[in-house]
UniProtKB/TrEMBL annotation:
Residues 12-368 form the Enoyl reductase (ER) domain. GO terms for cellular component: cytosol. GO terms for biological process: formaldehyde catabolic process. This is S-(hydroxymethyl)glutathione dehydrogenase. Signal peptide: none annotated. Has high formaldehyde dehydrogenase activity in the presence of glutathione and catalyzes the oxidation of normal alcohols in a reaction that is not GSH-dependent. In addition, hemithiolacetals other than those formed from GSH, including omega-thiol fatty acids, also are substrates. Also acts as a S-nitroso-glutathione reductase by catalyzing the NADH-dependent reduction of S-nitrosoglutathione. It comes from the Bacteria. It comes from Stakelama marina.
Length: 370
């Protein structure tokens, strides 16, 4: 079939809206009509050529919601007409990782997914005879996409696509980092570095579980108002501040250090600061941000010897097929907010504007509605 898509032909170039060819679903796969997709900073980082796994030409996008339009042979867990959220972290429930119950990082198809291919090692997308890569196993910047059955979460039919698509990455990542990865307990003091589409969800997750002080850190002064809307109790604008100054201020606000800190910037210097703001003896620092290719983190080992813990989280530690439908329920029941964070809505033709707004710090989340 033909479908409209925003194609990343080359790094650092605007996406081009073209009609591409899409092959139908093979065994174990489903055809999904993407109804809406968010634009996450990870899409921008890949488009900017900063992802060591980045491939071109490709169809980016990994934060979607849509409807199953066709199922391939052997598909049993979803059917035509089901509403689904594509999962860049699948859940096969059979691999060593899924069975371990220690991680959400299903390994069933990670190898081919990282090469921009479907599990059989081929792509379903092409343009004028040239193969286009899939992206993070999702490619939601295409109106129709093909997904492995293990990489879609069936969700309730009454959840609006244009808001629930955000659960496909940002919401689940931020809230899940609090609930699944850090397991923040009531009364804990929390510091969130970077109050964008992910960090604000960390804030609302921390508020939801009953954290005490929730300190937001950003260089953009406009983010203070945003943080306060979702439960932030203190704001620190770190523009012009040295690492030592930031740490001293956080230690003052948290009686010696935070119980939990989160990096939602992707900046490795910030990741170090976040770790060193954690309380001696028990403070945990969770890395959410994706750093540019070639960047490394550093700290004095003494920081860990003295009991601070450095952790990371992908997709908020969520097991997609199991947890995503529950997060949709939290949203529909009013336990978490999504609508106010969606600051801009575009047609696919205008998707490049969403990247411009993100880089200018003017949007929280932009969504393309097909
Ligand atoms: P965003 O652009 O919406 O937000 C980033 C925020 O960080 C902005 O408010 C910006 O002003 C702030 N910031 C930048 N540099 C800073 C600094 N030095 N100090 C303080 N604040 C700073 O991006 P997003 O969509 O929220 O994504 C955030 C990060 O999370 C990105 O690196 C993204 O790739 C990553 N991410 C990771 C996962 C995961 O599963 N681990 C999932 C989604 C996104
Ligand atoms: N490919 C990059 C790393 C990118 C990355 O860490 N992606 C996160 C999701 S970001 C969503 O916005 C993730 O899930 N990672 C686990 C995985 O298996 O990809 C690199 O550095 O090579
Ligand atoms: Zn994302």
């Amino acid at each position: 079939m033909k479908t409209r898509a925003a194609v990343a032909f080359e790094a650092k170039q605007p996406l081009e809206i073209v009609e591409v060819d899409l092959e139908g679903p093979k065994a174990g796969e489903v055809l999904v009509e993407v109804m809406a997709t968010g634009i996450c900073h990870t899409d921008a980082y890949t488009l900017d050529g900063l992802d060591s796994e980045g491939l071109f030409p490709s169809i980016l996008g990994h934060e979607g919601a849509g409807i199953v339009r066709e199922v391939g042979p052997g598909v049993t867990s979803v059917k035509e007409g089901d509403h689904v959220i594509p999962l860049y972290t699948p859940e096969c429930r059979q691999c060593k990782s899924c069975l371990s119950q220690k991680t959400n990082l299903c390994t069933a198809i990670r190898g081919t997914q990282g090469k921009g291919l479907m599990p059989d090692g081929t792509s379903r997308f092409s343009y004028k005879g040239q193969m286009l890569h899939h992206y993070m196993g999702c490619s939601t910047f295409s109106n129709f996409t093909v997904m492995p059955e293990i990489a879609v979460a069936k969700i309730r039919d009454d959840a609006p696509f244009e808001t629930s698509c955000y659960i496909g990455c940002g919401v689940t990542t931020g809230v899940g980092a609090v609930v699944n990865t850090a397991k923040v307990e009531p009364g804990a003091n929390v510091v969130v570095f970077g109050l964008g589409g992910i960090g604000l969800n960390v804030i609302q997750g921390a508020k939801m579980v009953g954290a005490n002080r929730i300190i937001g850190v950003d260089l953009n002064p406009d983010r203070e108002e945003w943080g306060r809307k979702f439960g932030m109790t203190h704001f620190l604008n770190t523009k012009g501040m040295s690492r030592d100054q930031i740490i001293a201020k956080v230690l003052e606000l948290t009686d010696g250090g935070a119980d939990y800190t989160f990096d939602a910037t992707g900046n490795v210097e910030v990741m170090r600061t976040a770790l060193e703001c954690a309380h001696r003896g028990w403070g945990e620092s969770i890395i959410i941000g994706v750093a540019e290719a070639g960047k490394e983190i550093a700290t004095r080992p003494f920081q860990l010897v003295t009991g601070r813990v450095w952790k990371g989280t992908a997709f908020g530690g969520a097991r997609g097929r199991t947890d995503v439908p529950k997060i949709v329920d939290w949203y529909m029941d009013g336990k978490i907010a999504i609508d106010p964070m969606i600051t801009h809505t575009f047609k696919l033709e205008d998707i490049n504007k969403a990247f411009d707004l993100m880089h200018a710090g003017e949007s929280i989340r932009s969504v393309v509605v097909y």
